[in-house]
C-alpha cells in the first residue's frame, strides 16, 4: 500500500487531482483554465482504486484527508435499550469495520459485495459524539462544554429531524459504490443499538477531472477552500485539534465538527452578473484570486480602495468578514461536500453545501464567525441554513484500540 | 481530442476502467478479485477529464457510450403557451448547449462556472420525446405507435409525478460537478418553454476504482450488464436502433428508451445467504459467471441438473427468465445507474436501480420481458417499480442539425 504517498497527500491536504488530466480538452477547447500554480504533488490517477487512507493515527481520518469525490454524512440515535455498554460495543464494531474497509478488505461476516473488485479508493470513516449521547450513556460528567448547543442564529431555518443526533459518522471515498458499501456496513453494524436519525449524500470533483491541484468548486461555481488553514501553518494543530493536555482528556487529539446543511438559492444567485457575484465573495470566480489581484494564494489587500473611493473588497464581502483577523483569530478548517437532491415543487434545485468545519473549539471557530454572518454578509441572502449538528470527534485510535474507547472505558 | 480513442471505446461499450488500478490494494488486501478476463482495451485514467464523447453521429450519445460514474435523468413538460415552434427552438438551444459542453466549452452566455477548470469528463447529453409531447405540439400524426403507453403491470407501484413527461434528458459524466453544470445549463435553456417534471440522480463505479473491464456492480452487489447485447453482435444495430428505412422516418437511427425507477428492498435482500442470492439471479456474485460454471462471458447451461435432479439455474432465476431465447428473441441494451436518496422513515434505504434500457421496439424488448417478470421471477420480491417512462430518442444530429429537427421541421 502506498502509505507513504498517502501520508504525504494527507499532510498537504490537497485533493487527489492530476496535472495530466487536461492536456487535450484544455488545449483544444480553451474552457479549462491553466492551474494557477504548480501542484506541489500530483498523486497518480492510475492508483485511484488502490489509494489508502490510514485508520490508525493521532487524529481520525477524514479531517485532513484530501476531499473525496463522494461523501455520506449520517447521524444515529441510540435505541431505548442501549446504554454505555452497548455504545462501547458498537464503537468497537464500527472501528473494526472501518479499519477493514479502509484497508480494502471485506467486512467480517456476510458481505453485500457492493465494493467487491474495487480498491478502497481513499475511503475514510470518521466517528463523533453529539450532546445527547452523554445523557443516554450516563457520561454527563465527561461531556465537554464545547458541546453545549450552538446558539440560535436569527437566519436559521433548521429542520430538527435532520439536525443533531447521538452519534455521527462521516464517510468519504473516490468511488460512490465503495462509499455506499461502507455506509451500509456501518448501518448494519448498528444492529439493535442505534438507528439512523438522518443521512445526507454529497460530492466533490472526481480526481483527474481537473488540473487544479488545490481546491474544489462549489455549486455557486466558486473555488472553495482557498484560505483554509494549512497543515504546514505553525498554529494548524492548535487551531484544529484538542491538545494532548486538553480537556476532557478523552478528547486529546480530537476535534469538534460543525455540520450545516446550507441550501444555495441558485435561481437568485445565477441572476447576478459575474462582477456582482465576485463582489459578494471578494474573490475572482475564475481562479479564486482576491479582487485586489494576484493568485489564489495571494493575501487580499483589505485596505485597498478603487477609483470610486470604495474598498475593492467590500465591507460585507464574505471572504473579508470570515477572516481570522476580522474575528479575533477565530479559524476553522472547512471540508465540505456539495449536495443535490433534485428539484423542489417550484423547480428550484434542492442543492447547496454540506458545510463541514473542524476546530479545536467551536467558540473560537464556527460560532463567532457565524454570528457575524448571521447579521448579514453579502452572501447571506443567497443561502439558507437548513440543518445543523455539532459533534465531538475524538482522537484517532492507536492499534488495538477503538475510536472513543478513552471515553467509554475511561 | 481523443476522438478515435473514444469512438473505439463507444463501440466496445465498456466502462472506462483501467487494468492498473488494483495493483496495490488487490495484492495486499486480497478483497479485490482479479479481473475475470483480459480487458480488450484499457482507457487511460490520466485523461479522465479530457475524455470526450462525440455529439454528432448516426446515433445520439449516451446509448452505447461507456457508463459514466454520475448520471442525471430529467423530464420536462412544455408550458401552456409552448407549441411546436417553441419546442423546435428549445431543441435547437439544447443541442447547441450539449454540443458545446460535450466538447469541453463553456455554454453560450453567462456561465455558472461550476464545470470550470474541469475537462468534459466524458459528458454525454441525450434527448427524447414522450407520448404527451405529440399532442401538445400538434404532431400526433408523427407519433410512433411504439410510444403507446406501456401496459400496466400488476406489480407496479408507480408514482405518476415521477413518471412520463413531454421531454426527457439523460446526462452522464465522470465528474459530478460537470454533470450538475450540464443539468443546470439544460434547465436554464428550457426558459419559458418547459418546466422540470421530475429529476433523478444516479451513479456507477468511478473509472480507476476497479480493474474489472466490462461491467459495473449494482447495489445488490451483483455484476450487472454481463449478457448485454454487444455492438459487435451481428444483430446489435437491428435490435437497438430503428433502421434507416424505419417508421416513422424521423426516428431513423433512433432508439426507444424505457426508464424505470426500481427500488431495491435491500433489508430483505441482505438477509439472504450468498447461495440464495446467487440462486435468485442464476449467476455467481463474485465474478458474474453462470451457476453452471465458466466466466462472466460463458453461456449458461440452462438444461444442466444438479445431483438433486433440479436445474442448477432455477426455472425462476432472473438471468434465465430474461434471456432472449426465452422471450422469442426479445432483447434490450441495459444501461442503468444506481440511485440512493437516503433512508426513509423506517431506516430502509431509498436506493435501487435507475433502470434504463434501449431497444428498436419496446414490444420486442422491454414489454414481453417485463410481462414475464411481472408474473414473478425469483428477484421480484426484492424489488419494486416506483416510476416509469417511455421515450422516443431520435437519431443523432449531423453537423448543422439539431436533435429532433427531422420531427419538428419534417
Ligand atoms: C453555502 C455557504 C457558503 C459558501 C458558498 C461559502 C463560500 C466561500 C468562498 C468562495 C470563500 C473564499 C475562498 C476560500 O477561502 O475558501 C469562503 C471563505 C471562507 N468562508 Fe465561506 N462559504 C459559505 C459558508 C460559510 C460559513 C457558514 C462559514 C462559517 C460560519 C464560512 C466561513 C468561511 C471562512 C472562515 C472563510 C475563509 C476566510 C479567510 O480566511 O480568508 N463560510 N467561503
Ligand atoms: C433492480 C432490478 C434488477 C436487477 C437488480 C437486475 C439484475 C440483473 C442481473 C444481475 C443480471 C445478470 C447479469 C447480466 O447479464 O447483466 C440481469 C440480467 C438481465 N436482466 Fe435484469 N435486473 C433487474 C431488472 C430487470 C428488468 C426490469 C428487466 C427487463 C424487463 C431486466 C432484464 C434483464 C435482461 C434482459 C438480462 C440479460 C439476460 C440474458 O440475456 O442473459 N432486468 N439482471
UniProtKB/TrEMBL annotation, chains A, B:
Its EC number is 1.11.1.-. Its main location: other. Transmembrane segments: none annotated. Residues 60-204 form the Dyp-type peroxidase N-terminal domain. It is found in: Cell envelope. It is an enzyme of class 1 (oxidoreductase). PANTHER family: DEFERROCHELATASE, DEFERROCHELATASE/PEROXIDASE. Belongs to the DyP-type peroxidase family. Involved in the recovery of exogenous heme iron. Extracts iron from heme while preserving the protoporphyrin ring intact. This is Deferrochelatase. The gene is efeB.
Amino acid at each position: 500500500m502506498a502509505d507513504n504517498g498517502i501520508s504525504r497527500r494527507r499532510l498537504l491536504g490537497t485533493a487527489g487531482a492530476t496535472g495530466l488530466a487536461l492536456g487535450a480538452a484544455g488545449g483544444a477547447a480553451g474552457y479549462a483554465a491553466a492551474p494557477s500554480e504548480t501542484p506541489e504533488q500530483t498523486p497518480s490517477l492510475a492508483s485511484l482504486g488502490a489509494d489508502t487512507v490510514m485508520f490508525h493515527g493521532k487524529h481520525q481520518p477524514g479531517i485532513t484527508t484530501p476531499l473525496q469525490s463522494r461523501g455520506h454524512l449520517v447521524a444515529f440515535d441510540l435505541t431505548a435499550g442501549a446504554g454505555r455498554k452497548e455504545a462501547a460495543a458498537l464503537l468497537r464494531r464500527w472501528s473494526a469495520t472501518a479499519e477493514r474497509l479502509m484497508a480494502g478488505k471485506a467486512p467480517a461476516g456476510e458481505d453485500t459485495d457492493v465494493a467487491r473488485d474495487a480498491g478502497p479508493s481513499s475511503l475514510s470513516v470518521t466517528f463523533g459524539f453529539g450532546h445527547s449521547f452523554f445523557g443516554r450513556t450516563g457520561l454527563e460528567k465527561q461531556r465537554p462544554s464545547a458541546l453545549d448547543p450552538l446558539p440560535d442564529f436569527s437566519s436559521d431555518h433548521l429542520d430538527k429531524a435532520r439536525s443533531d443526533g447521538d452519534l455521527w459518522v462521516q464517510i468519504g471515498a473516490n468511488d460512490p459504490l465503495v462509499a455506499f458499501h461502507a455506509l451500509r456496513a456501518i448501518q448494519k453494524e448498528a444492529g439493535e443499538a442505534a438507528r439512523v436519525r438522518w443521512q445526507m449524500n454529497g460530492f466533490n470533483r472526481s480526481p483527474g477531472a481537473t488540473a487544479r491541484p488545490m481546491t474544489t468548486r462549489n455549486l455557486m461555481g466558486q473555488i472553495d477552500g482557498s484560505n483554509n488553514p494549512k497543515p504546514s501553518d505553525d498554529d494548524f494543530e492548535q487551531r484544529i485539534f484538542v491538545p494532548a493536555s486538553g480537556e476532557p482528556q478523552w478528547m486529546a487529539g480530537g476535534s469538534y465538527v460543525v455540520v450545516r446543511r446550507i441550501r444555495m438559492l441558485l435561481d437568485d444567485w445565477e441572476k447576478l452578473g459575474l462582477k456582482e457575484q465576485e463582489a459578494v465573495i471578494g474573490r475572482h470566480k475564475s481562479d479564486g484570486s482576491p479582487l485586489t489581484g494576484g493568485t489564489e494564494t495571494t493575501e487580499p489587500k483589505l485596505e485597498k480602495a478603487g477609483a470610486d473611493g470604495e474598498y475593492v473588497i467590500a465591507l460585507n464581502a464574505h471572504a473579508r468578514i470570515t477572516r481570522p483577523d476580522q474575528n479575533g483569530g477565530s479559524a476553522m478548517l472547512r471540508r465540505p461536500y456539495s449536495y443535490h437532491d433534485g428539484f423542489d415543487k417550484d423547480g428550484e434545485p434542492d442543492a447547496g453545501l454540506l458545510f463541514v468545519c473542524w476546530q479545536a473549539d467551536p467558540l473560537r471557530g464556527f460560532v463567532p464567525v457565524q454570528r457575524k454572518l448571521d447579521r448579514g454578509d453579502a452572501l447571506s441572502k443567497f443561502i439558507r441554513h437548513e440543518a445543523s449538528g455539532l459533534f465531538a470527534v475524538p482522537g484517532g485510535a492507536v492499534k488495538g484500540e477503538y475510536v472513543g474507547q478513552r471515553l467509554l472505558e475511561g
